[in-house]
What does this fold into?
Amino acid sequence: MTKEHIWYRNIAASISLFMLLLAIPRLPYGYYTFLRWVVSATALFSVWAAHECKRKSWVFVMGGIAILFNPIIPVHLSKGAWVAIDFCAAIVFFVSMFHIKPERKPKEEKTSPGTSKQMLGVAYHNKGMYDEAIVEYKKAIEMNPEHSSAYYALGVAYSYGKKMYDEAIVAYRKAIEIDPSSAKAHCYLGVAYHNKGMYDEAIVEYKKAIEISSSFTEAHHGLGTAYYAKREYRLAIKHYDRAIELGSSVSPEVLEFLEQYRVR
It folds into this structure.
């Protein structure tokens, strides 16, 4: 069903509507015969249009009008009945112009440039093909330099896949520059610092992640581990306990060691 078909049907419906209203006063008999042909033809056209547009209820409504006005086996009613029918049919044709049309297709969500490259990178990453993943993440960034999640994914590939923490730090920082509200980017930047032994810097990033998302399990666990490495055991206990509350696990040996530092 094309827009052109809908336009033609609406023209036919408008003509039928006008003729039906004109038929309400008493007119020569020949006019009513001609009216039957016009209305029934328009109704049949409308049946086809409604079927094509998947408007089932309108198929039946227009089918009923086609039968009622058909000139082959005419239905004979009183003048008063036909006045009411003509008026109602005119209203139906008017309303049909707004309803017999194709359903609107939902708008496709626009994806930002580079998304497909990033998703390909994720697929490589999940297969442990970190070099290939890094290539695709970089392509995604070239296509959209403001793609924060691509920088984040690049940081993950460098940090967890290649153990290239300096490169990971650069990528995470860029992701945060674009989207400072990314708790994940702050947390995993902290992890990269942590893996380089830069505990103070790691603690700063873990805290920022927790400020954004107070129940970020990995950030609490990371803080506990960083404080443990700095021998700030009471702070380590605080964040390990919170991580455990959130479902994380901590080495039993570490917890046993920390027991002596709990406030009694």
